[in-house]
């Protein structure tokens, strides 16, 4: 078949122009065009981030073809969604399913009854099977991370449920090594266990274990696309070398080109025992190498991660610079390992071990981990700047609160967030806190902004003022972990309370810890033993799976629960990096986002989760997406001829009927992601005589609203219903409003981690397609610079009465009014 832009595409020739899902080639991509040597694209030795090797979106032939296709969707009635959604063949092709089978940390079968713990990173791992975690990669555990790929070994893990999976949604084991995968088509799930788990006892545990199974189903049949449209989008991804860019991201190349840094947040959730060396070169990585060679990424003494110095907190200090891509050479080998990966993984797990130990000590109330008055730490307050590093943690915190195991683990504990320099925020977050039971987690990469320092100094002053002369309760020495006394009523010693004035250093040592890149926080009064390390390559909006999020969440919910979140994120990482594009959920969402915003002209998108527990999902996705992709220039600095980025909004379903859906149905066209769950984390039994539960009631809207947006309601329907003529036009719904439906099995720690990584990768996909750098954020600097200038003026005027100068008339007038009011109320 020949596309309208004149390039042949064999993968479309399936007789009905619907998406073709079979016939994957040896590289694991259905219909991907390869060179004679099996590699993709240009065979030059240039990195895909060399500007000479860079293709802009508007320079590829699919650009005009997609614009023409979009014009047809806007004007051709036959392409209205009310017609497209009645095409069964089309709709069945526009779906993707990802299935994960994993062992939760709540089970004792693989964890010896401990639910994880030291040495396993809490992933439900048998101590004799350190290469297997509850979300091990597909290379480590063949029973998990299955998806609707058609070119792998089919696993029959569906026989216990009776689910009827259509051929294009078969669950398979996807192996990175495609040649080996072709030779293993007869393997069953137990055969794979034989290969991976040599220990007979551990194998029996795996075989007898009723694994938890989790599905993510993406249905994008209500998007304004056909199979041919999707093929154009897949070809567009090929033309701009998306696969190469994704692999460069995965392998630690400096995809953040403006700051000359790698982007490695996917390393943060790799389980302990994960063997990065087993990741074979993908076709995209080998495309820039001559046959028979791979890129040598071992830097020896030049590697910035080659040496470590221990910090007092038990973690390790990483340098903040990394080798440039130009330092890489070529040599014969079997794998390509980025120079920082091995050392970075070790350092990451050192910090995770540090968090595991520390959080257990705090939660168990061990004597040396109590506050200065000997009371247990029960409250944690995260203090950060207004830069958004807290938003991901707040999202996960809210989501975990609905999970029964997580909420049970958090019983008696509270987690607070102080991020706004507004004094009202400080008051609201501290008014109900007992400083004697409060631990402050201050989060900052380098403590370089005035907002960060102001918030930290305010909370430190609050602690010092309350604790300097607080009474020490000696009786708390005799309490069990649950707070009950260890002594009987007849032998209990008399209450001994004493007052002692203590210094700020003692208070800081017991009540303040820091998550930071800096080597020393002595100037802030925080001892180095209280530092939890992050690194310069961590980007704030992608930092939730680092100590930024892991530490406070572990204090609140336990390290074991948080490990399940990390495992879910790692599972989605593996899906994103390994799944064929046609079955890759983050890739599909990214392609559809570019289609809707760049070609269809829809500038806004909505995120509607049908769970109140996900009320913070939209702010989190807004942070990740808009800060990443709100750019005006391409990677090479040339101005974009198409806008990048989308406006994000959202609320939980059930709350959106009035604020959003009026606009979405009869106002502007806003593509939406609907997110729903097959199971409620807090189910209620149906009322007497009712077959429909509260969760069913909620999910009725999840299924109904996308159809209402797609089909609409025509004037003739209103006439037949007898609606008065004067009201008919007001009650017409034009329909043809696109949406995607994402249905997950349940809301639990694992699926929360999947959602985190899903939307992180969706954002990266769109940035790669637009040809922008999604990993810098210079747009936030100008306002910060102007604000600093204002701050200096305010300081001078407050101290010395200096006149306002150096600003335009409008700003000067407002400043003078503001300062005059302060003088009157002094």
What tags apply to this protein structure?
826 residues; alpha/beta; monosaccharide binding; disordered N terminus; 10% strand; globular; 36% helix; G6P_Isomerase
What would your notes on this structure say?
Belongs to the GPI family. It is a single chain. By secondary structure, the chain is of the alpha/beta class. Among the domains are: 348-482 and 498-557, Rossmann fold (3-Layer(aba) Sandwich), CATH 3.40.50.10490; 779-824. Helices cover 36% and strands 10% of the residues. The strands form 6 sheets. Strands 2-1-5-20-19-17-18 form a 7-stranded mixed β-sheet, with helices on both faces. Helix 11 runs antiparallel to helix 24 (749-770). It starts with 61 loop residues before the first helix and ends with a helix. The model is unreliable at 1-48, 105-199, 201-211, 280-337 and 478-497 (pLDDT under 50).
How do the helices and strands line up, and which of them pair or pack?
Layout: H1 62-75, H2 81-84, H3 88-93, E1 95-102, E2 146-147, E3 153-154, E4 172-173, H4 178-182, H5 189-196, H6 200-208, E5 212-219, H7 227-239, H8 242-250, H9 283-286, E6 294-296, E7 309-310, E8 316-317, E9 329-331, H10 341-364, E10 379-383, H11 391-400, H12 404-409, E11 414-418, H13 423-430, E12 438-443, H14 450-467, E13 471-473, E14 497-499, H15 504-511, E15 512-516, E16 531-533, H16 547-557, H17 559-578, H18 585-599, E17 604-609, H19 617-629, E18 647-650, H20 661-666, E19 672-677, H21 694-711, H22 715-720, H23 725-728, E20 739-744, H24 749-770, H25 781-800, H26 809-824
Parallel strand pairs: 10-11, 10-12, 12-15, 15-16, 17-18, 17-19, 19-20
Antiparallel strand pairs: 1-2, 1-5, 3-4, 5-20, 6-9, 7-8, 13-14
